[in-house]
Amino acid sequence: MRIFTAVLATETNTFSPICVDRRAFEASLYAPPGMHPETPTLCSAPITVGRRVAAEKGWELIEGTAAWADPAGLVNRRTYEDLRDEILDQLRAALPVDGVVLGLHGAMVADGYEDTEGDFLTRVREIVGPDILVCVELDPHSHLTKKRLAAVDFLVYFKEFPHTDFVDRAEDLWRIAVDTLEGRVKPVMSVFDCRMIDVFPTSREPMRSFVDKIMAMEEADEDILSISVIHGFMAGDVPEMGTKLLVVTDNKPDKGSALARDLGLELFAKRGTFIMPQIDEKQAVAEAMAASSWPVVIADLWDNPGGGTAGDATVVLQELLDRGARDTAIGTIWDPMAVQICMAAGEGAEIPLRFGAKSAPGTGHPIDGIVKIVRLVANAEMRFGESFAPFGDAAHIELDGIDIILNSTRAQSFDPTLFSVMGIDPTQKKILVIKSTNHFYASFSKIASEILYCSAGTPYPNNPARTPYRRAPRDIWPMVADPHAAKEGVA
Ligand SMILES: [Zn+2]
């Protein structure tokens, strides 16, 4: 067998001011054929797992390009078209193939392309014809469109959020692909539209039990090849935004449809109960200052560069300054211009500085003050599990007793080493403010006396009922109270 594989992925927050061009892909991952490293990034496990499977089966794996850009805003039209055409040309050159196994994110939006993955997959199908297996692993924070469903044999999504299972799901993808190519199964997709949009962390209930349940179903019933919850991505203003339930059966479409509907309606019944309880910046700062054990971690959860925002909001910092908080550190506020000014001034200098909140409305106001430059680090990195996450040239400044880390490469706050590399001992602070929605938890929970989830300002469109969508559906929950009742009432 000859299998073609490639990766083209990013997550587009269409409300983000940070646009994505070819340099953004090259800064995150751009690997020409055969050059992908041994360890996968979020969306490229189909390549690394595929190498192992192909070696075991004695099959030929033809690698195309792998490209991934960190989540941000709209993708430049030329950048998308060039990367797409580069991979399609590689596929044409690889023909004939028996299968195409891809890694995509599923929430990429390019200038002129609301459904980039639908466009890409339709072109892949045109090249290989109707009878060749095409399958994809995707991130659940994505849009499941009719165009994509029409173009592929089956899709497999990560089940966990945080996405700790992207390698496991690539194993599922390849196992089903091998069984299909060897004639043991015939994958058929059944989809239920939950007519809602929500956030589904699997590190807490009720989503933890839901994911455990669907995994047990996959295990127990050989008709069921794969069950995925497509969470949807509320920061993508596209016509097919929303939560969907996908069941892939071994050619049992009626059974798949019934199960997709049952599971989808179960999720719908629990709408609004999945996300962690949140408080505003006034309550968060008051509770943190009143705490009796430390450090209290305030997660500024919506100004998370991992969700495509700039990461430069100052709403929580302003509240801390207004309340006269001390023994407090903030990591990070993205401001490359301010970092450049600090670098020029040098360690130990005291300078007037304006920083933060320059990217977008809803992020607070720039902070002005006489700051002391405590420490400067070029090409700073924090730990992230077994690897490192860069946050660029960085400046540790002090303003009114608050330690602030300014950075020049957008990065979410994965790990407390973010503070220690800048000369701040995070365990000696009373309050730590970080920018991350969920990925910070594993490392920061080890040092935190308490974690407060703070929704401050509107750096991210986190309330779909109020988000000024232009393209997304307005007849789903929470925009309307019960879309299923309305829909079935009319029918
Ligand atoms: Zn995701």
Task: Describe the protein's topology.
Layout: E1 2-9, H1 22-28, E2 29-31, H2 45-57, E3 60-68, H3 77-94, E4 99-104, H4 116-128, E5 133-138, H5 146-151, E6 154-157, H6 166-181, E7 187-193, H7 207-220, E8 224-230, E9 244-250, H8 253-269, H9 281-290, E10 296-300, H10 315-323, E11 328-334, H11 336-345, E12 350-355, E13 367-384, E14 387-399, E15 402-407, H12 417-420, E16 431-434, H13 441-444, E17 450-454, H14 483-490
Parallel strand pairs: 1-3, 1-4, 4-5, 5-6, 10-16, 10-17, 11-15, 11-16
Antiparallel strand pairs: 2-3, 7-9, 8-9, 12-13, 13-14, 14-15
Helix pairs in contact: 2-6, 3-4, 9-10
Bound molecules: zinc ion.
Residues 139, 141, 163 line the site of zinc ion.
Your description of this structure?
The chain has 491 residues and is α/β, with parallel strands linked by helices. The protein folds into two domains: 2-269, no CATH class; 281-454, no CATH class. The protein contains 14 helices and 17 strands. It has helices at 22-28, 45-57, 77-94, 116-128, 146-151, 166-181, 207-220, 253-269, 281-290, 315-323, 336-345, 417-420, 441-444, 483-490; strands at residues 2-9, 29-31, 60-68, 99-104, 133-138, 154-157, 187-193, 224-230, 244-250, 296-300, 328-334, 350-355, 367-384, 387-399, 402-407, 431-434, 450-454. The strands form three sheets. The chain has an eight-stranded mixed sheet with strand order 12-13-14-15-11-16-10-17. Strands 2-3-1-4-5-6 form a six-stranded mixed sheet, with helices on both faces. α2 (45-57) packs across α6 (166-181) and α3 (77-94) runs parallel beside α4. The longest helix is centred in the N-terminal third of the chain and has 18 residues, at 77-94. It is globular, with a radius of gyration of 23 Å. The chain starts with a strand and ends with a helix. The mean pLDDT is 96.
